[in-house]
Amino acid sequence: MTGQVQGKVALVTGGASGIGAAVAELLAREGASVAITDIDEFRGEELAAALKQAGHTAMFLPHDVTSEDRWVEVVAQVEKRFGRLDILVSNAGIGISVPSIVDMTLADWRRQTAINLDGVFLSVKHCLPVMRKTGGGSIIMMSSLAGLRGAAGLAGYCATKGGVRLFAKAVAMECASVGDRIRVNSVHPGIIDTPIWGKIPTEATGAGQNAPIDPEERAKLATPLARAGHASEIASGVLYLASDASAYATGTELVIDGGMNAGGVPRK
Ligand code: NAD
């Protein structure tokens, strides 16, 4: 059976862990050649090796999404190896939580913005010209439920993810207006059980340590479906947007959040 993205070439940022790793794995299983990029070289190399061992086409490139020079090199390496780029999954991101926005340092605000927003801008700036050469493709930006509504302690994160949401719509309009067959959409996960939750307390340098966040505990209380989501459940949404199954979808947002954005349910 033909895979849903057979013969396509994909680049996944932040692909060494969590949602990015699940996306890289699913796209590879569905027939794409996948370039995984991340600052985590150990896990990135490990995942690329495992995918190759399973008979898929994959490579890992060490990559900090905030470095424009590195973006130029990464895109050139992908083009050299695979000859084209059809799918960009701009997924790398961090979360910094502080009890109050007044406790956030400017350094932390800028670091989070650099990765979550500048990194997405640079991904489009450098990948779009290569995607345009073959005339089509799909750009998927990883926003968040926090890009649709506010969350206490996460004002900076919400600002970056809200920015990603509207950036996706604006790039979608630009691509459509010049007749590109490149579609651009954003994905909005709710509470997904990935290593990001364990990193949030140590990221908060501005206001000391927060209590570690257990995504399953939080999701039980906050999510109508009463559980955290799995990275694979976000990957299947990304696959839909990456494949021709979503050929008529651009400038839209795919919310995968166990019902959180729809409202609340009384807990018995
Ligand atoms: P994760 O921590 O498991 O994965 C994030 C990856 O990004 C890591 O491999 C990390 O090394 C990489 N990364 C961090 N900084 C980078 C940089 N400067 N350059 C390149 N790579 C970098 O987290 P995750 O949950 O898989 O998060 C993936 C995306 O999903 C993020 O954008 C996050 O904001 C978003 N998201 C996650 C959740 C959730 O509940 N897990 C919810 C909504 C949105």
Automatic annotation (TrEMBL):
GO terms for molecular function: oxidoreductase activity. PROSITE patterns: ADH_SHORT (PS00061). Pfam families: adh_short_C2 (PF13561). InterPro entries: KR_dom, NAD(P)-bd_dom_sf, Sc_DH/Rdtase_CS, SDR_fam. Keywords: NAD, Oxidoreductase. Belongs to the short-chain dehydrogenases/reductases (SDR) family. This is NAD(P)-dependent dehydrogenase, short-chain alcohol dehydrogenase family. It comes from Bradyrhizobium lablabi.
